[in-house]
Amino acid sequence: MTTVNTTTAQEAGTPPSMRLRELVFGAACAAAVRAAARLGVADALGDSPATAEELAASVRTDPRALRRLLRALSCYEIFEETADGRFAHTEMSRMLRENDPHSLKYISLWCTEPWTWDAWPLLDEAVRSGSSVFERLYGKGFFDHLHEDAHESAHVFNQAMTTSSMQSARDVAELLDLTGVSTVADIGGGQGHVLASLLEKHPHLRGTLLDLPRVVANADPRLRRGGPLAERTTVLPGDCREAIPVEVDLYIIKNILEWDDESTRRTLRNVIGAARPGARVVVIENLVDDTPSMKFTTAMDLLLLLNVGGAKHTKESMISRMADAGLIVGDVRPVNAYLHAFESITPA
After folding, report:
1. Were both Cys, which of 57, 81, 115, 208 would link to 234 (CB 3.0–4.6 Å)?
2. 206-211 and 233-237 as β-strands: parallel, antiparallel, unpaired?
3. 57-104 confidence digits (pLDDT tens)
4. Nearest to 211 by CA among 249, 171, 158, 275
């Protein structure tokens, strides 16, 4: 068995007792990032350093309290305190800006939404039972609660998923060789950013976007009627766990095989049931044994356990589930630091 060491050089020089103290105060760091995002501090700070007083006037906060927030964040290289006591942007703080091309503002908000503070203290219960704690907390399933009772959280979730999908769509389009492919389906593809990127790159391609009705109703404008890719796109409302009524050369399944195992099995079998023999199926997932992003993906894995009872995959577990469904698995390649693509074909 290979042991992965994810300790950074900076951490290696810190005594274990101090590292553990820092880790158990991790909620303070997450809350500080959330506060900065909600207050719009990164948007208020321009290219030149500013004092806490200047920033406080822009975001309407108490100057002394804002200085304390910025100083805490500076310890994690989110903002930087200069020698004269001003604060400047860092690479990470720029990602908290609303319109930064690499913005992680909504992802930061999503991972610190109010329900997360209720759920994390029950992680020991989830580990004992191996199942979600969400219904105990709110009396209903995660997505039902979001869309019925927590509209602001639902908006943040949608914005976070849109941001993440848009940022990875270009990487997916660059990775995939579509030689011999004339039709593609993005299964559970959300608003269709991956599909849109593929159609833009390959003018001969025709595509189908399949997801739940309320999701595809807000599909990428490029794919909808009047959009530049609409004539080559079919937007298909449906649940991939129930049926996949489309036959194409290539099926893409990205970041949706994280539910319970039965839902994953049904989705993969539905693909095989719909596809012609030898069709390509590319599954794209975060991995918990993916060294560059393990701290992030293992944390998301625990969050999935809490909210829907799902799980991120290891390379081995993903290959096993695909093979059990009947797919013939080939190459596994990194898409970027966070994602891997599993190539496969349907059986003859």
Report:
1. 208
2. parallel
3. 999 999 999 999 999 999 999 999 999 999 999 999 999 999 999 999
4. 158
